[in-house]
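hey so i finally got around to running the thing on that chain from the lab meeting. sorry it took forever, my laptop kept dying and i had to restart like 3 times. anyway pasting the input first so we r on the same page abt which one it is
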Amino acid sequence: MPESPKDRGILRELARQVDALPVHQETIRLWKRLNGLQKVRPLVWINEICWNEMGPEMNLECADAFCRSLEWNLRATLYPWRHMPADMVVEGVLYSPVVVHDTGFGLEVHAERAGERPA
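ok and heres what got predicted. didnt touch it at all, straight out
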């Protein structure tokens, strides 16, 4: 959890807004039917968005880098629902990136690609 109360408040508010999005069980059912190659109405999925042109609504407010990544994901979920609702489905989860720490203790990996000569 973020150390900054401001960051924590921003993330909680955005998460509350995402959680309040309508659950479209019918849309989920239609996507499953479409993916099963059954005939359904055309479904619209908007995924190519010019995020750098979306204006102040996409400005990040969190100070911590990890919190900013979470904030970006939440804002990128909310924006299409507010301005261009279609047949997107929002899961009630927030994915966290994998964190790997290397202590430098242990075996080193020495790899060569096929066709490359060792340096």
